[in-house]
Amino acid sequence: MSDNNFKTHISVQNLNVHYGKNHxxxxxxxxxxxxxxxxxxGPSGCGKTTLLxxxxxLLDTSQSPMVTGxxxxxxxNIFDPKVEITHLRKKMGLLSQRPYPLPMSIYxxxxxxxxxxxxxxxxxxxxxxxxxxxxxxxxxxVKDRLHTPAVRLSIGQxxxxxxxxxxxxxxxxxxxxxxTSALDPHSTQSIEAMFNSLKENxxxxxxxxxxxxxxxxxxxxxxxxxxxxIEHGPAxxxxxxxxxxxxxxxxxxxxx
Amino acid sequence: xxxxxxxxxxxVNKNRYAKNGMMVLTILACSLxxxxxxxxxxxxxxxxxxxPLSELLFSTEWxxxxxxxxxxxxxxxxxxxxxVAVVIAVPLCLLTAIYLxxxxxxxxxxxxxxxxxxxxxxxxxxxxxxxILLVVPFISKYIAPLFNVSSNGYTVxxxxxxxxxxxxxIIINVLLEVFKTxxxxxxxxSLSLGATKWQTVKKVLLKRALPGVIAAFVLGLSRAFGExxxxxxxxGNVSKLPKSLMDPTYTLPSLIANNYGEMLSIxxxxxxxxxxxLILLMIILFFNIISRIILVKIERNYQ
Lengths: 256, 303
Ligand SMILES: Nc1ncnc2c1ncn2[C@@H]1O[C@H](COP(=O)(O)OP(=O)(O)O)[C@@H](O)[C@H]1O
Ligand SMILES: [Mg+2]
Description:
The complex is a heterodimer. Chain A is α/β, with parallel strands linked by helices. Chain A contains ten helices and ten strands. Chain A is globular. Chain B has a two-stranded antiparallel ribbon.
């Protein structure tokens, strides 16, 4: 497949984010490919989380960030006041740095989203819960204790539960903010495997600071530094043949 | 080498003295409650042994001159006034705290917080005066006619209203602290599934914070049970069983405050007032123990 021959799912245009006087994201422009896994790499503090959270408009509202520019998803600018924010977020599942199960049972965690969006009927909900727990390869481990509190699961299981919970609202985009950074190697592997199988049907954007992980899972990579998008392109090109000096130095471990 | 070990012995000993000293202080503080209970029991023993407990607790006849000491009007009065206060305070405090922690911008909270702190620092006598000037006449003029009763306004309702305002700040402040313990990421998880803020508040924030919410209200309740001055000023202090919110009433703390030190020539009167203190203390202890049991139960279910 040639480099620029992809369909765009999310188009970021002149995106700027300020917290007070701090210019956090500086004029970001990028078209994020549809049904591929895009990894955001860059040193910590460079604005990866901020960029990810601006996609589902979860920026810290108490600090009232100033956002200018556009993020166009399915032809619609998400910052348009007419956009219904709950619909926007329903389209994007989020995996955070550490898993945060909701304070309820395993079953209710998965059922939470569908119920909020109006799904009724025990049979329907049972089906959904089983379906998505299987999809997150958690079903076998928890099917006998669905009604116990989710916090009793191991961290790795919790992250897979969060995945099931996110998939259950039928998003078409999955956002992950260093979703494996708190996990053991085995759980990391299972989350990565999940990403690899999900990218046929979902557009996935994953923040990672582990280059080897980017190599394992990414189709497309964007490299950020100090709030700027320095370079982006197909994974092999960025990792093996970066055009920018800064990207090269980051990949070689000279800057971090 | 030698000096080194000497120095470290000194540090170790210092640590040990500090630890033991603090332990003694802690034990002293804890034994204080035991001492109070023992002291009150000894002093109320004369009346406790002279009459059956059921008569003391359930009789409504309070005629010290005739030697009749029925505490029922005061116990009922205390519960009635406190109950009204909590019923008013719970929803209002919850909504206020939810607004301040989840909805209000930081500019609003910065503006509102000092008001809550000032409210909590106002002496109760001021609330009493405010009650007499505003709440009592308001009840007498507007609320009582609504129910087709005539009242001078000195009622259970007046006591409950004034008391609810007094326990507002403590409950709100504790609730705000409790809500702070719910991680933002957990709320974000709910929001990112497309839940509205209100759904997130109901299903995540309140659920996760439930033990703390209960603790906040028990704290308010304990405070309300013992509150004296303001209540004494607006409830009319009539030692009769109140039949409605529009009746005057007399609470245990008011009884003690109004009478202790006076009329000690009446036999058993002094002992009766100390028994009133003991009953009050028992009520408060009882609620604290119950709330602890509830907290443990909840924590076992959710965590
Ligand atoms: N709520 C906030 N208020 C103020 N500054 C923030 C806030 N969130 C993030 N920042 C700042 O934005 C910058 C980028 O943060 P972040 O997006 O979390 O970086 P990354 O995820 O790449 O480590 C950091 O300098 C951080 O201090
Ligand atoms: Mg980050």
